[in-house]
Amino acid sequence: MMKKICLSVLLVLALLLTGCASAQAEPPKVENFVFDDHGYACAISPYGCTLEDLEKALDTTMTDRGSNPVTNPFTYKSYITSAPVTMLGLDGKVDAQFTEDGLFAFTFTTRFTRDTAEEHYADIREQFISVFGKPAEDSDNGLGTQQVEWQDKKSGTALALVYSDLGTTDPTFMVGVLEKWRYMDVDK
Known about the structure:
By secondary structure, this protein is an alpha+beta fold. It is built from four helices and twelve strands, in the order αβββαβββββαββββα. A hairpin with a 4-residue loop joins strand 10 and strand 11 (157-164).
């Protein structure tokens, strides 16, 4: 009898372990920012989506900010949300750039009140590091701007956090994803 019970327990454990091993792993993410087969991206606005797709995902319209400066190696159009959107529990604006292939860069920007800025940035920074691991770049220019960036060479994408406190206004915080390869290899 004891042999049957042990065998039954082992069989159940084997089935459970087999089920767990075959489960699809969820891509690492912090709210809408993810790392998946396409690299670093914003889940609600995948690379290549249209302006209309992005407006629908954000539930707001976007205002045309014009074309890129002539110094850029390729042509794109820039848009910004007409109304604030909420991401990472904060209200801010989304800035997005599109080529004829669709979206290639997405940035969420907000301002922190001076009294909570450093604490908010440190908390968000640690959340991203705990999910995405050690960043490829972690810099502080000593003049009030800090940047943390993760890069995926396979997809040519990047995820960046930028905190800027120049002392004249409330500090700015940005989180963005982009197809960085567009700036590195214009022949692609």
